[in-house]
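Below sits my pick:
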Amino acid sequence: MAKMAKSTRVKGIIQSLREKFGEPQCALTYKTPFELLVSVILSAQCTDVRVNMVTAEMFRTVNTPAQFASMPLEEIEERIRSTGFYHNKAKNIQLCARKLLEEYGGEIPRDMDKLTALPGVGRKTANVVRGEIWGLADGITVDTHVKRLSNLTGLVEGLEDPVKIEQALMKIVPRKEWINISHFLILQGRDKCIARRPRCESCEIKKYCNFASSDKSSGKES
C-alpha cells in the first residue's frame, strides 16, 4: 500500500464505519447523567455488557448521589463486585457522590477540569460523559480498543500513552467527529479487529489499515 495521508485514512475509516454501524450510540445503559458517570467508572477493565447487568439491578434501588454517599461502602462493593477492582471503584463512586453533593448540589458539572477533579474520573470518563450528555467534545475518548486500532490502522504510530494518542487524534480527526470516532473504533474493535485474532480479510476498513496490508495480518482470518 502506498503511503496514505492520515486525513484520507481518517475520512475513509469514518465513512466506512458510519455505513456499517450508522450513527453510533453509547453502549452503556443509563437514565441520568449520574447513572452514566457511575457506569463509566465501573467500565474500567470490565465489559459494557457486564456493567449493564450490574447497573440494571443496582439502579432499581440505588441511583442518586445521596444514596451512594450515605450507604455502607461494603454494600456498594457487594453490588459491583463482578465488575472487578470493586474495592477501588466503590471507594471512588462514594467519594465522587459526596463531592457532587458538597460542591455541586448533586449535579454533574459540565466543565472538564471540574469533572476530572472528581474521584475516579479521568479524561476518558469525562470525555464520555460530556460527549454523551451534552454533545461536548474537548477531546477524544481513548480506551483499549481506540488505542489498539489507532496504532494498527496507522492513525498514530507507536503510541501507548492514551493522552498522547488523544492529542495525536485530535490533530487529524475533524472536531465534529471527535465523539463518533471513539464509538466507531470501539465497535469495530469488538466486531472485526479483535485483539489476538483480528479478522482482517473481512474488515470493512482494511484498505485504510497499515496492519491489514502488512505481512503480519496473514493467516489472522478466523
